[in-house]
Amino acid sequence: MEQKLKELQAEALQKIEQAEELKALNDIRVAFLGKKGPITEVLRGMGQLSAEERPKMGALANEVREAISEKIETKQKALEAAAVEKQLASETIDITLPGRPVKVGNHHPLTKVIEEIEDLFIGMGYKVAEGPEVEKDYYNFEALNLPKGHPARDMQDSFYITEELLLRTHTSPVQARTMEKHEGKGPVKIICPGKVYRRDNDDATHSHQFMQIEGLVVDENITMGDLKGTLQVFAKKMFGEDREIRLRPSFFPFTEPSVEMDITCKICGGEGCNVCKGTGWIEILGAGMVHPNVLEMAGFDSKKYTGFAFGMGPERIAMLKYGIDDIRHFYTNDIRFLKQFAVTE
Ligand code: PHE
Asked: Per the UniProt record, which EC number(s) apply here (predicted)?
């Protein structure tokens, strides 16, 4: 019997050693240690043994069982560890693979220029105002000293929606709207960026829809000197300290006197070139002292209050600042154009 038990142990240990899967191992456990297994079978024959030998065989049988269980346990751990290893190996991530670049968008060049201009004026105490793009004839023209039938209305070809409604042709109606809200009390100090529309044929320098930034200051004792100083600060901050400005007499129905502002041409430094058409100066914006009629119509006492206003096209400013030669680039959204204004930090 002893012999038989030893043989069983040797056989079991060998099989365990060879087992390659947890399932096979379990089968071995059931086969050798189970109730119907050979060890139980051997022990059944114990009845025939002498009283002396019985405990010895009992002890031996236990030893064999233990040896087998222990071996199964060690093998089981080894197989489990190997399974984990295998799984890890199959799920390995190759961290040397280069990452895919994340596409980052950037601000449109016009947005950048507008924000830059806004910041500049906010720094001088201005507030940003807004008004509707579908505007009343009254605010777009009449309240700006342009009554119906006024010849100067032809300066701005308009998209009319009804007799009394149109797409605003400039941001100046926001002047009238803002002053009205102030109910005759100064100071008013705003800039207003926004879209405007004119019946122009699109070409390199014209667009039926474009942007404007309006500025308006109304208070007691505002003079043309304040206007000039403000525009000078603006021009130097926007285009560089070396730039000079000049004011030329002009005409707008809503300002009196009216001016146009030029800055010295950056390309030729004032010598005269193609860009400045040989004059050394480039036109930047229209401006002037708010017409007394405009102040009065908006409820301001023109004997007490004066003001200045200016209006500029951010497209033109962006074109000069970045050397862009066609206004249509701003609206066709060619990614190759837009990408050039990405901040790379
Ligand atoms: N609204 C004028 C234009 O579009 C510009 C302007 C604004 C001129 C304010 C004077 C004062 O041409």
From this structure: 6.1.1.20
